[in-house]
TrEMBL record:
It catalyses: [ThiI sulfur-carrier protein]-S-sulfanyl-L-cysteine + a uridine in tRNA + 2 reduced [2Fe-2S]-[ferredoxin] + ATP + H(+) = [ThiI sulfur-carrier protein]-L-cysteine + a 4-thiouridine in tRNA + 2 oxidized [2Fe-2S]-[ferredoxin] + AMP + diphosphate; [ThiS sulfur-carrier protein]-C-terminal Gly-Gly-AMP + S-sulfanyl-L-cysteinyl-[cysteine desulfurase] + AH2 = [ThiS sulfur-carrier protein]-C-terminal-Gly-aminoethanethioate + L-cysteinyl-[cysteine desulfurase] + A + AMP + 2 H(+). This is Probable tRNA sulfurtransferase. Belongs to the ThiI family. Residues 59-167 form the THUMP domain. It is found in: Cytoplasm.
């Protein structure tokens, strides 16, 4: 019965015509890629009157479309002539199929362009058709416009009418690829994959960087980070994600040997940020994203976060900063990274027994002067390994 998917987008519609046109084209490309990735058969994806349509009778098409960044909602619909008799008959067919005896129904009508009928007329005529059909089937029809058991939506446009019953909520955001690229410091824990996904949802392509702490961490930690990115790859069907593995164990060893041990984690972060910054410039990216969230672990204090970035001038973003752990976990489940992130790994063996929790930013800078930080960073970045997800 359904032969098309209506794809609705929100924020995009607020852009100027040129920007909107560009973003819509990116969205169409991403929708096509998602449908192919999910093995959904479709004949075409096209734009019309502020909507995107997918010609497909696959029942899974609307759900796949709803998982594309930029999409507010999607509905599988029957596309018919813009003729009220035809639309009313389709409503009656759908009503006969969906509305059980004793259930109430409501018609939600909309129109755009000149159809010669008001939306109230459309609602009444389609409602009459459903009522008549249910009666002819021996069911007792019941109309309830405020809280019906079943809703049937009718949209009359100038050339076409669309009839549908379900609206699948989309992920929202902006089409992936419209907001440039950023590096994501990807540990593979619960937080950093969620931070990455939130930036992807805002249209930013990601380049994950894993700081490999071996021998202070096990190989399994690298595996976990890579597997998280594999899950994120499913949200980026049009482009393969490039990931970096940067050797960081030697840096940790030097930090432990030369500096006060309570500052190890702070100096580790500053080194990581510098490494990420070098990769950012090399990749033509414009920012660095972390999964930091204030107060989440004892060391994620405002004072420490200040000390971690003091004097660096690096564009850092922490999209989880104000979220609760439960909110982050809910998102991780929705994204699909949660089960990977909770896989047991060794943790970092370089973490001191009593890490600093109230760092003085000027003291950290003096600690850092004990290191040949630029050489450490350049050495690590030169020996970094990059690969595309799916190649390993
Ligand atoms: N080995 C690593 N490689 C890349 N980034 C890292 C690494 N370790 C930490 N980070 C970055 O620093 C952020 C804060 O890490 P930290 O270990 O302090 O907190 P966390 O709550 O355990 O984070 P996560 O859940 O993301 O592991 C991480 O979200 C990530 O962005």
């Amino acid at each position: 019965m359904y032969d098309v998917v209506i794809v609705r987008y929100g924020e995009l519609a607020l852009k100027s015509p040129g920007v909107r046109n560009l973003y819509e084209r990116v969205l169409v490309r991403n929708l096509e890629a998602m449908l192919k990735q999910e093995n959904i058969s479709f004949s075409r994806v096209y734009r019309e009157w502020g909507r995107i349509f997918i010609e497909s009778d696959d029942p899974a098409a609307a759900k796949a479309a709803a998982d594309v960044f930029g999409v507010v909602s999607a509905s599988s619909a029957a596309k018919v002539e813009a003729d009220i008799d035809v639309a009313a008959k389709v409503c009656a067919d759908i009503g006969a199929d969906r509305i059980k005896d004793g259930e109430s129904f409501g018609i939600r009508a909309r129109r755009s362009g000149k159809t010669g009928l008001s939306s109230t007329d459309i609602g009444r005529l389609c409602g009459d058709a459903v009522w008549g059909r249910l009666e002819s089937l021996g069911r007792t029809p019941k109309v309830d416009l405020s809280d019906p058991d079943r809703e049937i939506f009718v949209e009359m446009r100038q050339n076409r009418a669309y009839v549908f019953t379900d609206i699948v909520k989309g992920v929202g955001g902006l089409p992936l690829g419209t907001q440039g690229k950023m590096i994501v410091l990807m540990s593979g824990g619960i937080d950093s994959p969620v931070a990455a996904w939130l930036m992807m949802r805002r249209g930013v392509k990601i380049i994950p960087v894993y700081a490999n702490n071996e021998p202070f961490a096990e190989e399994s930690a690298h595996e976990r980070a890579r597997k998280c990115v594999e899950v994120l790859q499913r949200w980026s069907p049009a482009d393969r994600i490039k990931m970096y593995d940067v050797p960081h164990g030697k840096n940790l060893d030097t930090i432990i040997k030369k500096c006060n041990e309570k500052n190890t984690c702070l100096l580790c972060k500053r080194t990581m940020y510098r490494m990420a910054y070098e990769i950012m410039k090399k990749e033509g990216a414009d920012g660095i994203v972390t999964g930091s969230s204030i107060g989440q672990v004892a060391s994620q204090t405002a004072a420490n976060m200040h000390a971690e970035i003091y004097g660096l001038g690096i564009p850092l973003y922490h999209p989880l900063i104000g979220l609760d752990k439960t909110e982050i976990i809910d998102l991780a489940r929705r994204i699909g990274t949660y089960d990977v992130s909770i896989m047991p790994t060794s943790g970092c063996g370089a973490v001191p027994a009593r890490p600093e929790i109230n760092a003085a930013f000027d003291l950290i800078v003096r600690e850092e002067e004990k290191l040949d930080i630029e050489e450490m960073v350049m050495d690590a970045v030169t020996n970094a390994r990059s690969f595309f997800i799916g190649d390993e």
